Amino acid sequence: MSDWRKERDLARKTNNPMSFLDNPNFLVRDGLLLNPNVTEEILKKLSHDTSTSIREKLANQFIETAIKDSNWRVRYVAINDNPEVPTEILEELVHDRDARVRSKAQELLQIQSDYIYRKDFDNAITIKLVIPGACNANCNFCYNKHSNQMEKSTTVLKQKWLENFLISLEQIVVKIGKRQPISIDITGNEPTLDADFFIKVMHKLRGFSLRSNISRVTCTTNGVNIKKVAPFMNGIINYVNISVHDYNQERRNAIFGSYYPTDEDYKENVQILLDNNIHSSAVAVIDRKIENFSNFRDEFIEWAEDIGFVSLRFRHNVYSDGNAFLSYMNETTSNNEFFTIQKEDTPDSNWCQLSTSNGFMLFFLKGVIDTYQVSPGIEFIVHDDGKAYADFNKTIPFEKYKFPIGYVFDKR
Ligand code: SF4
Predict the structure, then answer these.
(1) How many domains, in total, are found in the chain?
(2) Are residues 85 and 226 in the same domain?
(3) What mean pLDDT is predicted for residues 229-256?
């Protein structure tokens, strides 16, 4: 190892960081930024360092110093990807001598006037991975059918997707960095419909070194090909959400329209997933008014427990106003046979997690199709064309996303 590398290693660990402050090599001084013994006072000194690169790294932390820096890059970095720059500083920087700093300050002032930064957000940021292809079922409320955003999946397009999706995924993961944990949600249409293609996706994901800040990987499927794909999900997917929509076979057949899974099929699917270390939850979109909801809910829970699901997730039909759904949710949270574990009302969702007395989990989620419209930053999409987007409607390519990444904003 060359001498300066040895010195930098020392700078990273020393108990006497002051002694490195005057080191003539900036690469050695840079080592101090990773030293846990470095005090705020030393960092403050380093924020005036002669090295632009060191000043840039501390720009967010010592913003008052950074915005007076002679180098435009340091001033730019201090505000870029920083959701908490005080308005007064941005107002000052819209008159900056550098056009790039002026334009970034202008952009952030606009965000501050239109959105509120969600400071208390402590959940994962979701990346939806949309597998190209169709669905074997034909549910009325399916947003893929209504959204008109899905590409017609030809073999060529699917091959292209396979070549590109990891690059797009990486692009988003790297930008979010360590700011928030990340949850990857594999979805479709029906993601497992072309089982061979799905298995290829699993192979690629296995090779993708899943970063430590990816907290979980889930897959939402109607279960049609679980038996074929489950062994390939092992070690990649943590939870599978199986869309069942109703516990009653007749009503379920009517909802799916062209797919008729039996209770025995669900039992087998749940078992094979469990054999591959994966828990499954049942998902039901509530698309109609239910006369006696408490009865429906309790029978549904009993059915789901018997099948072997660990939870039941009710979702509202995004094409309805959701008022009936909210009344079902409120009726359940006020019922003292359930323990409310979490409840959240934000612009993008009304959500709650409850538990029965024997530990079975019940969720209600009234969400929106396109979170970008109300809460940018909470979700990104690798769509069925293999490209990264900030919105489900494919109107904001990820590289054109203007908000600081890794933070959530709510529309005022
Ligand atoms: S199973 Fe899911 S993807 Fe398929 S039609 Fe129904 S809602 Fe749409």
Answers:
(1) 2
(2) no
(3) 97
With b meaning 16 or more CB within 10 Å and e meaning fewer, what string describes 203-223?
eebeeeebeebbeebbbbbbb
Could you give the CA distance from residue 126 to residue 379 in angstroms, rounded to a whole number? Answer: 5
Of the candidates 141, 161, 59, which has an alpha carbon nearest to the alpha carbon of residue 388? 161
Pocket mutation for ligand 1, best pick of 190, 225, 241, 318 (most atoms within 8 Å of C-beta): 190
- What's the one-letter identity of residue 176? I
149 and 34 share one domain = no
Task: Read off the pLDDT of residues 187-217 as tens digits, 9 standing for 90 and up.
Answer: 999 999 999 999 999 999 987 766 667 899 9
Q: Which domain holds residue 140?
A: 125-411
* pLDDT tens-digit series, residues 14-39: 999 999 999 999 999 999 999 999 99
d(CA 240, CA 362) in angstroms, rounded, equals 15
**Protein residue closest via CA to atom 8 of ligand 1:** 142
Hey, which of 138, 142, 219, 283 would you mutate to test ligand 1's pocket, going by the most ligand atoms within 8 Å of its Cβ? 142
